[in-house]
C-alpha cells in the first residue's frame, strides 16, 4: 500500500537513526579539534567537565535529529508538476523542483541505511544552481514508489514535446524490469586486475607518503636521530630486498585495485525500464542510476591489450549537464562487459551498433610536437637545472624514459584516428588503454575549428565538437576535409529538428 | 507534394567563405583607451622603480627598453586581435572568428542556443557599444561573446536570436 504522495509525507520513523548519525557526523567534524585536545589533556579539570557533559551533548544532538526528522517532508505535487521538499528547524527551507527539470532519480543505500533497511532517494536536476534534493530514509517500497511516480511524470511531460519516442514507450508494459545484463564477479575480477592502474597507483602513493611522514615524526619524537635511520635503511637496502619490496608493492597494488573495483561495482545489474536503462551496483553502498538513451551525449568504450585477450570492455556514458561543476560526476561507468554485451548496450543506446566510417589521420607534426613537449623539454630542463653530482649514476634513466615515452607516443599517434559516417563520429585514441569516443552529430551544440598560422600551408587544423556532456576534439587533421564535414553537420543540425536532450 | 531529393553535399553553404562583419571601429577606441591606461600604469611603475629603488639604477636603460618592447608587442597583438575578429549571423547559425596566433572559428546553430544576453561595459557604454553573449547547453567552452557591436545593432541581433529560439520551441 503506497502512501498518498500528493500530501506532504514524512520519512520512515526508523529514519531518525540516519538523521542522528548525520547530525553526529556534522557536529563531530566541527568539534573534532576540541575533542582531540580533550583526549590529550585527559587529566585536566576542563576535560573532566567535558566528558561529564558529553551525554547531555548527545541528548541535544538526538533532539536536533528528531526535530529535523519531524520537519522534513516530501511531496509529489502532480497538479503543479513539482517535487517539493521542506526541511529545517528554525530556518525553514522549501525546495521545489519542476518535474521536467529532473534528470535522474537515484535510489541509494549506505551501510547504516542497509543495516536498518531504509533507502535514500536522490533527485538530480539539470541545473547546478538548484540545490540537490535528497530524501534520506524511506522504506524500499516508498522509495520505488517515489521513483516510479517521478519517472512516469517526467515521461509524460517529455512525451508531449517529443513525439518519436512516445509510441514505443507507451505500448510497453509499465514497471517491467527485465535484467538484460548482469556483470559476474569473474568479469569484475578481470577488470580489477587490468584497469585503472594509474588511479590506484595514486592512492597507494599517497598512503605510503603519509605512513612515511608519520613514521619519521614518531621516530623524531622517540629520540631516534633522523639520519641514523636513513643511513641504516641505505646500508641494508640491497638488491634482493629491493626486488622483494617491488614485488610486494606490485601485488599489493593489484589486490587494492581488485578490491576497489569489486566493492564499487559488485552485483552490477543493467535492466530495461520503460525505454531507459536502470543500473544498480555496489557492495557497501548500493547505487542505482537511470540512463535515458535520448539524454546520452557521449559514449566511451575502452579496452587495453590484456582486456582484449580476456574479451572485456569498459563502457562510460556521459549524460547532459547544464551546470558548470561536477562534470566528472555525470559519467556513468559500466565495467566488464564482453563484446556481445557491449554491442547489445550500444544498440539500446543508439538503436544500431555504431560503425566506423571515413577515416581521418593526424598530421605527422602531431607526433613531432608531442615528442618535443613530453621528452625533449622535461629531460632538457632536468639536464640544465639539476646539479651534476645529483645526476651521476642516474644518466641511464634518460634514454630509458625517452625510449619508453617514444614508444607510447608513437603507438598513440598511429591509433589516433577520427572516423566519420552519416550517423556517428568516433574518435579512437590512446596507447595502452585504447578508447573509442562516440558521439552522434545531432548532439553537437557548437563547432569550433582552429588553425595556427604556420599550419596554413600544410592545410591542417584542429576540430572541437561541443556537446552538453563534454567535448570531442581532433588535432591536426586535414583542414579542408574537416571544414567540409563541419558544413555537412551544420546542415544536418540546422535542417532537422532533432532532439538533443 | 512530398519531395525527397538528393542533396549535393559539396554544394552546401560554406562557413569559411562567407564575408564576416568586422567589429565596430568605435570599439578600437575602447581598446586604445584601456591599453593607454595600462601603459601609463606600466611606465609609472618603471619610472618610480628606477628613481626610488637603488638596485634598479644600473639597469635603467634595459628597463626602459623592456617597457618599450612590451608596449610595442601588446599594441601589435591588440591590433591583430581587433582586425581578425569578425562575425556573421546567417539564416541558421552564428559564426564568430577570433584569435591571434591560432585563428579559431566558432559556429553555433540557432536551434542549440539556450539564451542570449547583452552586456555593456563601462567604456563601451560611453561609446554606445555592447557585447552579445550567446549561451548553449555545452558549458563555458561552447559559449560565444561578440564584443564591439553598436548598441541598436546588438539589440536587434538579440531580438533576432530570441525570435529564432522561440520558433524552435
UniProtKB/TrEMBL annotation, chain A:
InterPro entries attached to this UniProt entry: YdbS-like_PH
Domain of life from the UniProt record: Bacteria
Transmembrane segments: 12-40, 46-67, 197-219, 239-263, 367-386, 392-414
Domain YdbS-like PH: 72-149, 266-348, 415-471
Alphabetically ordered keywords of this record: Membrane, Transmembrane, Transmembrane helix
Record-given protein name: PH domain-containing protein
Record organism: Flavobacterium silvaticum
Lineage, highest ranks first: Bacteria, Pseudomonadati, Bacteroidota, Flavobacteriia, Flavobacteriales
UniProtKB/TrEMBL annotation, chain B:
Signal peptide: none
Domain YdbS-like PH intervals: 86-160
UniProt keyword list: Membrane, Transmembrane, Transmembrane helix
TM ranges: 30-53, 59-83
Organism superkingdom: Bacteria
Pfam families tied to this protein: bPH_2
PANTHER family found in the cross-reference section: UPF0699 TRANSMEMBRANE PROTEIN YDBS, UPF0699 TRANSMEMBRANE PROTEIN YDBT
Protein name: PH domain-containing protein
Native source organism of the sequence: Flavobacterium silvaticum
Amino acid at each position: 500500500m503506497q502512501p498518498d504522495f500528493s500530501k506532504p509525507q514524512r520519512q520512515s520513523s526508523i529514519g531518525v537513526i540516519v538523521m542522528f548519525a548525520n547530525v553526529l557526523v556534522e557536529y563531530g567534524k566541527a568539534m573534532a579539534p576540541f575533542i582531540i585536545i580533550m583526549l590529550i589533556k585527559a587529566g585536566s579539570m576542563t576535560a573532566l567537565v567535558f566528558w561529564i557533559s558529553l551525554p547531555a551533548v548527545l541528548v541535544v544532538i538526538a533532539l536536533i535529529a528528531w526535530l529535523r526528522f519531524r520537519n522534513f517532508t516530501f511531496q509529489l505535487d502532480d497538479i503543479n508538476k513539482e517535487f517539493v521538499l521542506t526541511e529545517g528547524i528554525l530556518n525553514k527551507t522549501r525546495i521545489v523542483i519542476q518535474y521536467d527539470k529532473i534528470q535522474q532519480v537515484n535510489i541509494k543505500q549506505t551501510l547504516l541505511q542497509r543495516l536498518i533497511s531504509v533507502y535514500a532517494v536522490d533527485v538530480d536536476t539539470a541545473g547546478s544552481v538548484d540545490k540537490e534534493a535528497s530524501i534520506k530514509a524511506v522504506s524500499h517500497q516508498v522509495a520505488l514508489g517515489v521513483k516510479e511516480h517521478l519517472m512516469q511524470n517526467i515521461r509524460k511531460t517529455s512525451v508531449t514535446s517529443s513525439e518519436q519516442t512516445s509510441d514505443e514507450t507507451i505500448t510497453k508494459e509499465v514497471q517491467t524490469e527485465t535484467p538484460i545484463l548482469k556483470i559476474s564477479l569473474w568479469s569484475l575480477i578481470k577488470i580489477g586486475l587490468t584497469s585503472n592502474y594509474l588511479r590506484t597507483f595514486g592512492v597507494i602513493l599517497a598512503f605510503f607518503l603519509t605512513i612515511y611522514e608519520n613514521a619519521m615524526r614518531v621516530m623524531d619524537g622517540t629520540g631516534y636521530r633522523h639520519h641514523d635511520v636513513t643511513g641504516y635503511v641505505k646500508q641494508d637496502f640491497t638488491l634482493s630486498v629491493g626486488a622483494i619490496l617491488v614485488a610486494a608493492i606490485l601485488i599489493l597494488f593489484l589486490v587494492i585495485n581488485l578490491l576497489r573495483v569489486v566493492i564499487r561495482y559488485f552485483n552490477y545489474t543493467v535492466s530495461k525500464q520503460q525505454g531507459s536503462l536502470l543500473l544498480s551496483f555496489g557492495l557497501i553502498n548500493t547505487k542505482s542510476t537511470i540512463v535515458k538513451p535520448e539524454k546520452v551525449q557521449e559514449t566511451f568504450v575502452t579496452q587495453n591489450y590484456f582486456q582484449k585477450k580476456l574479451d572485456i570492455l569498459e563502457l562510460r556514458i556521459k549524460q547532459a549537464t547544464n551546470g558548470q561543476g561536477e562534470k566528472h560526476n555525470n559519467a556513468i561507468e559500466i565495467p566488464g562487459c564482453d563484446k556481445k554485451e557491449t554491442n547489445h548496450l550500444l544498440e539500446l543506446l543508439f538503436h544500431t551498433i555504431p560503425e566506423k566510417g571515413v577515416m581521418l589521420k593526424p598530421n605527422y607534426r602531431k607526433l613531432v610536437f608531442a615528442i618535443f613537449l613530453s621528452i625533449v623539454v622535461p629531460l632538457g630542463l632536468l639536464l640544465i637545472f639539476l646539479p651534476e653530482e645529483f645526476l651521476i649514476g642516474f644518466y641511464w634513466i634518460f634514454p630509458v624514459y625517452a625510449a619508453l615515452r617514444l614508444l607510447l607516443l608513437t603507438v598513440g599517434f598511429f591509433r589516433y584516428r577520427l572516423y566519420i559516417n552519416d550517423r556517428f563520429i568516433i574518435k579512437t585514441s590512446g596507447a595502452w588503454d585504447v578508447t573509442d569516443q562516440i558521439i552522434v552529430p545531432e548532439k553537437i551544440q557548437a563547432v569550433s575549428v582552429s588553425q595556427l598560422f604556420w599550419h596554413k600551408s600544410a592545410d591542417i587544423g584542429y576540430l572541437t565538437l561541443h556537446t552538453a556532456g563534454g567535448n570531442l576534439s581532433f588535432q591536426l587533421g586535414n583542414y579542408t576535409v574537416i571544414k567540409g564535414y563541419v558544413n555537412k553537420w551544420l546542415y544536418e543540425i540546422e535542417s532537422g529538428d532533432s532532439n538533443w536532450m | 507534394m512530398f519531395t525527397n531529393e538528393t542533396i549535393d553535399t559539396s554544394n552546401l553553404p560554406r562557413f569559411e567563405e562567407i564575408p564576416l562583419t568586422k567589429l565596430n571601429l568605435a570599439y578600437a577606441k575602447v581598446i586604445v583607451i584601456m591599453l593607454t591606461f595600462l601603459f601609463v600604469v606600466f611606465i609609472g611603475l618603471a619610472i618610480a622603480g628606477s628613481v626610488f629603488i637603488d638596485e634598479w639604477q644600473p639597469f635603467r636603460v634595459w628597463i626602459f627598453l623592456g617597457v618599450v618592447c612590451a608596449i610595442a608587442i601588446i599594441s601589435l597583438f591588440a591590433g591583430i586581435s581587433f582586425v581578425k575578429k569578425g562575425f556573421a549571423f546567417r539564416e541558421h547559425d552564428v559564426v564568430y572568428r577570433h584569435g591571434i596566433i591560432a585563428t579559431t572559428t566558432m559556429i553555433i546553430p540557432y536551434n542549440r542556443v539556450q539564451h542570449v544576453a547583452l552586456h555593456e561595459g563601462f567604456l563601451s557604454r560611453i561609446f554606445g557599444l555592447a557585447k552579445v553573449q550567446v549561451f548553449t547547453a555545452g558549458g563555458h567552452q561552447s559559449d560565444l561573446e561578440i564584443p564591439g557591436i553598436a548598441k541598436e545593432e546588438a539589440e536587434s541581433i538579440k531580438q533576432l536570436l530570441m525570435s529564432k529560439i522561440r520558433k524552435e520551441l
